[in-house]
Amino acid sequence: MKVLVVARLFSGLTESAQSGVWAPSGVPAIYKLLEALASDGTTELKTVLTVKDDLGDWGQADRTVAFPAVGSVKILGAPGGGLLGRLGLAGKWREILHMMKVLFLVLRWRPDVCYVTNANFIAGSMIARLRLSRVVMRFLGLHPVQKRIAEDGGGFQAILYRAPFAHAVCSLDGSGGKKYLPKLLSSRVPITVLLNGVDRIDPDPDRVRELKKAHDLGTRPVVLFVGRLEPNKGILEFVDACGSILADQSDAMDVLIAGDGSQMAAARERAKSERIRFLGAVEHRDVAALLSLGDIYVSLNRFGSLSNANLEAARAGLCLVTLAPDLAEGTDVESLDVFPEGTVFRIDRDDMQVELTDTLRMLLSDPSLVDGYRSRIRETVAGGFRTWDERISDEIELLRSVA
């Protein structure tokens, strides 16, 4: 089976691409699939990663990087600046170039299956429409723009999404794949929605001790926030809620925030208590140690509450606080199937800061309530979560059936 994977150069893969050393972080659904395909003796793999972000001079030129773990990877740069940049056309020109180069590679290599992530949906659509290869369209969740296209049903992008894909795969992340993909894609395209895998990783005892000492953790409950510090993740509301509680009761809890992003500086400025600590981006091997120290885990992700970080927190048996479903948008309706009522604490989306403040006060004042949620989430995880190896194995079998 010849498989061409076309994905964007995710932030979790950028460091590997620049250093030439395979050390991915984030996007396990992509890098674990690449590793599994590369090690499969019956599969011939080619990988293309397209630069969609501004990476300076490094990101403008095409290059090829060889990794022992996944083989040769072609990186398609994003030329910008100059007249096109001044006219606001650099992005459109980049997409045209990426599409043309991918099409040329398909014509030359003739893969049995093209596995194309949504950032390259234009190339994926053209491959499918020209019948150059069978295309599996991969969505790592849905964004609001795709939901709008699905509902409106018109425009050039809607036409591209209705290409004759052989299959569509979407992560079950709470963003509404089950509701919107049948509207976004052709009715003839089979759709598979899969919950991400969750591996059980035992925390390193030495690292646990180091974190406890470094952040003076002791008898106080520990509240965790793990993820990108971006507006859609609710980091500022989280910091304000914790700050409000600590202003009244300085020893109510210790707050650990792991992650980086565009709102790091703003979040630091609004954190008025020394009990709120920012750890920055942490290596994945340290996440297990961090989760083992937590009692309450808060996720205010507006796009869905079944992210990798949240699933790992559930696997660790923490008391999860997430957002309630948005029935109008279809967001997190799917989450009710994974986390039934009573397994996680859900708060209203309309006034997150006030809701979160009240919820944390209640949980902190009643440890037995926290213990109850932790017990129920452990039972849920034990009955339904799959490892990444099991999850990736299913997807490879799907690719074989398409081929």
Structural description of this entry:
This protein is α/β, with parallel strands linked by helices and 403 residues long. Helices cover 44% and strands 18% of the residues. The strands form two sheets. An eight-stranded mixed beta sheet has the order 3-4-2-1-5-6-7-8, with helices on both faces. Strands 11-10-9-12-13-14 form a six-stranded parallel beta sheet, sandwiched between helices. Helix 5 links the parallel strand 5 and strand 6.
How is this structure best summarized?
About 45% of the residues lie in helices and about 20% in strands. The protein has about 400 residues and is α/β, with parallel strands linked by helices. A hairpin with a 3-residue loop joins β3 (about 65) and β4.
Gyration radius, rounded: 22 Å
> Which class best fits the helix and strand makeup?
alpha/beta
Can you give the mean pLDDT?
93
Bulk shape? globular
Low-confidence stretches: none
Keywords:
14 strands; 403 residues; 6-stranded parallel β-sheet; alpha/beta; 8-stranded mixed β-sheet
Explain the layout of strands and helices:
Elements: E1 2-8, H1 11-19, H2 28-39, E2 44-50, E3 63-67, E4 71-76, H3 82-86, H4 90-109, E5 113-117, H5 121-129, E6 134-139, H6 144-152, H7 156-161, E7 167-171, H8 177-184, E8 191-194, H9 205-214, E9 222-226, H10 235-248, E10 254-258, H11 264-270, E11 276-280, H12 284-292, E12 296-298, H13 308-315, E13 319-323, H14 335-338, E14 345-347, H15 352-365, H16 367-384, H17 388-402
Helix pairs in contact: 2-17, 4-5, 6-8, 9-12, 10-15
